Amino acid sequence: MQNKDLCIRDAVLPDLADLVQLEQACFDADRLSRRSFRHFILDKRSDLQVLEKNGQLVGYFLVLYRRGISLARLYSLAVLPTERKQGFAQLLLNQAELSARQRRCVFLRLEVRPDNDSAIALYRRQGYQEFAIRHDFYEDHSDALCMQKRVFSYQQQGTDKGVQFIQQTTPFTCGPAALLMAMNYFEPNTYDPYIQELEIWREATTIFMTSGHGGCGPRGLALAAWQRGFDTEVMLNQSGPLFVDSVRNPQKKQMLERVHQIEQQKCTQAGIPVHITEFTLNDVLEKLHQGCLVLLLISTWQFDRSKAPHWVLLCDADDDFVYLNDPDVDTEAGQNAADYQYIPVNRDIMTKAFLYGKQRLKAAVALKKYKEPAF
Fold first, then answer.
1. Judgement on whether residues 124 and 229 belong to the same structural domain of the protein
2. Is the pLDDT of residue 332 over 70?
3. Could you list the residue range(s) of the whole structural domain that residue 277 is in?
4. Is the pLDDT of residue 162 over 60?
5. How many domains does the chain have?
6. pTM assigned to the model
7. The domain spanning residue 35 has which CATH number?
C-alpha cells in the first residue's frame, strides 16, 4: 500500500532501531526485543511490515505462520501514541489480513487484553469474534481474549464445533489429551484432564519408543473410551503389533507382541470393531458425517520436519480443509493454545501427514457417546 504520505512495506534490517524505539513507546511490558525483530525480519514464516508517514516509521504489524498449517497469528500491531486516532491501526490490520490471504491462510487469530476496549472495538468492527480466553497470558499475569476472523474462503461450510481444547502436559500423552477433548465434547466438563490424562495413559500405553516413555496405541485408546461409556471403532491398515520396528531389544519386541494380543482379546470381548483395511482420509471423514469425532495418528514431518508419531483430534472438515485440535503446544517457540485449536490443514497435506514411518502406518479411532449402535 502506498500514497504520497503513507507507505506500508516489508521491514528491513535498517529499521531495527526505529522498531525498538516504537515498541518502547507503545508497550510497558511484553515488548519485542531488537533480537526478536531481527529474527522476524529474516524469518520466511513471518510477515513484519512497517507503516511510514512522510518517511517516518509510525507503526508495524507482525503475523506469524506455521509450516503446513493454513492459520495465521497476528502477534503484534502497534502505532505510535502520537499518531493514533487517524485510522492507522485499521490500515495495518487490513494489510495484515491481506498478507494472511496471500499465504492462503483460512483464519487470522490474535490475542488482546480484555480491558483494551479500543482494540477490541476495532477487531469487532472488522469481523473478529471471540473464541477463547487464555489465563495468565501476559507478563503481568493478566488474561488474554482470543479472537479470530476467517480471511480466506474456498467455501463457507466449515464451522467450529466448539470442541474444548486440552493441552497435553507431558511429551508422551498426546493420545489421552486428544481423547479427553473428544469425550468432553460429548459430555462437557465431565472428564478432568488433571486426573484423567495420566490415568488414560496408564491404561492405553502400548508402545516402546527408542527412548523415553511409551505412547498409546489405537486399541488402547479405544478401550479407554469404551470403559467410560463411549461407542468406539478402530481403523488400521496393519494387523500386527505396531511400532515393532522402532525398538531393537528382543524383550521389548516380545512385550509389544504380548500387549498387542491382550488388547486384541479385550477389543473382541468388548465388541469394539477393529477394521484392518487400506482406508483413506475420505473414509475417516465419513465418520465425522456419522456424528463422531476421530483421533488420528499422524507423522509430524509435514509440520515441523520431525518424524514423531503423534495423536491429534479431527474435529471438522469442508471441501478444502480438515480442522484439527493438536494437544502438543510448542510454548518454547512463543506459541499458545490458540494456535493449536481448530487448525485448518489443506487436505493434500493431511493426506501426506496421515501416514507414519516406513511401513506407512494408518491408524484412527472414531468415537461418540453410546446411545444406539453407532457404526
1. no
2. yes
3. 174-369
4. yes
5. 2
6. 0.78
7. 3.40.630.30
